[in-house]
Amino acid sequence: MIISLAATLTSLRLPAFKNMRKTSIRLGPLTLLVGRNGSGKSNVLDALAVLSALASGATLRDALDGGPSGPLVRGGS
């Protein structure tokens, strides 16, 4: 018998990441990011990309700078 458990990300806390300070975002099955230019929408996506890379076993430096495949985060670390 194979049991598969999938983790679901329900919130994202960003105490200090790029322009985000003390930010908490609730996530659902479908989450839309809307806002003015420069409000941080892409930075939220960058934070999720970093978390994804870390969960896949990347080092923090590679998660921020992208390693040999190039930067994941605009601007890097």
Account of the 3D structure:
This protein is of the alpha+beta class and 77 residues long. It is built from two helices and two strands; from the N terminus they run ββαα. The protein is globular and about 50 Å long.
In short:
By secondary structure, the chain is an alpha+beta fold.
SSE topology:
Blueprint: E1 11-17, E2 20-26, H1 41-55, H2 60-65
Antiparallel strand pairs: 1-2
Which sequence of strands runs across the widest sheet?
A: 1-2
**Unreliable stretches, pLDDT < 50, 5 or more residues?**
none
The helix/strand class is: alpha+beta
Shape annotation: globular
Spell out the helices and strands N to C: EEHH
Count of helical segments?
2
Name the average pLDDT.
Answer: 87
Taking the sheet with the most strands, its summary is: 2 strands, antiparallel
Q: Radius of gyration from the CA trace?
A: 14 Å
For this entry, give a set of tags.
77 residues; alpha+beta; two-stranded antiparallel ribbon; 2 helices; 27% helix; 18% strand; globular
